[in-house]
Amino acid sequence: MVHSAIHEDTARDGRSDAVADDAVMSMADFHSWFNARARVNSFQVDRIPFADLSGWDFEPDTGNLVHASGRFFSVEGLRVRTDRPWVGEWAQPIIVQPEIGVLGILVKRFDGVPHCLMQAKMEPGNINGLQISPTVQATRSNYMKVHGGAATKYLEYFRPGSRGRVLFDGLQSEQGSWFLHKRNRNIVVETDDDVALDEDFCWLTLDQIRRLLRLDHMVNMDSRTVLACVPPALARPDDRTDGDGSFVEAVHRSLSGRGRSVHDPGHILSWLTEVRARQELVQRRVPLKEIAEDGWRLGHDVIDHRDGKYFDVVAVAVEASNREVTAWTQPLVAPRQSGLLALLVKRIGGTLHALVQARSDAGTLNIAELTATVHCQPGNYADAPAEYRPPYLDYALAAPTGRVRLDVVHSEEGGRFYHAQNRYLVIEVEDGFAPDPDDRFLWTTLSQLMSLLSHSNYLTVELRSLMAGMRSF
């Protein structure tokens, strides 16, 4: 099946496409360039039986799906025990990828205006082929050229000894539902060098990227997580408000730390530590073939659950003319349905706060991380007793249109997941909503969430995507 990445010029956010005085290219020129990259490059992804995987095989003793090199990643079994009141124990396939990759954005100022070097990159699991990716998006196996292919472009700016100025550098977690303890290095580097521009890359201002963040399936997950970490002083001056009391102004004030917060930083850290201390999360890696006892079917072309829920593991053959290796095969995790990430926000004492929850997933490294108010695949709860449905899920699904401030569908990591997508919502609730939430939820300001990004394993990748979205206003 051939995927198209063509985005019509009319499918935008309604703002002017005239070239800004401070931008290297106009939005109209960007869309023309992006569509041209889709036409020039050829992409094809086909589902195949596991037996047709090249370099991948099921281990005879464990049934684990592994690469012959011992690198990249493996698909293994995981048994999980928690103290959740509904389905507290289960087993599942899990991606084990202990190596830490690099997700890096290179920044350069043109006429004093910061621009980010972004690429149009194909990933096998992307719904639409091409999406906007960071300057560098590479696993350690890839940039060490275990695949025998070409070198990773611009990697030198993110290696020790680079002449660039590091603006952010931290380890951040990835999807705990499908990865075991997975982290990547998120790094932003500014350079003064004259950078040779490859044809699959372009310079975009942060304002232009904000526009693209409001389009479905345009800015990939790896870009969103790094963009969430961009220092606020670089991303937007603190004076970008006009005192009109609008939601946009409320977002900017909350991001910049102006206004009073319900809880001080010490309380937030203590609350999360308390959750981590009392929450039970026991993880035990087991042979993949063992999870057949728990309803997982190990077929010739799919690993799936007998209930038709959760996700599958599939195999694909890939051809991509602009990748370091132009043809390969690999396994992918394929969710059975779309997810929902809804962040409920309200103004408390005039300051915008977000209602976040402390959540544990099967593969979470540090017991629990902060995530959106609602974080689930709704279909998984279709047969759950009413008292065990995720809090605020039904409110988010039925939220009045007039209270929805952001509604966009983003793809998740296309290098490991096949057609994984989540609907991201920001909903401004009424003043009296959840004044005293239960002990796994807390009201925080946006600047408090931003401050936690300087540490590892505090915000889930899904919440970081929402933070990137909030910074798009």
Automatic annotation (TrEMBL):
InterPro entries xrefs: EvaA-like, EvaA-like_sf
Pfam families: Hexose_dehydrat (PF03559)
Lineage: Bacteria, Bacillati, Actinomycetota, Actinomycetes, Pseudonocardiales
Listed name of the protein: NDP-hexose 2,3-dehydratase
Domain of life: Bacteria
One Gene Ontology term of the molecular function aspect: lyase activity
Domain dTDP-4-dehydro-6-deoxy-alpha-D-glucopyranose 2,3-dehydratase, chain residue ranges per copy: 28-230, 267-469
Alphabetical list of Gene3D superfamilies matching this protein: EvaA sugar 2,3-dehydratase subunit
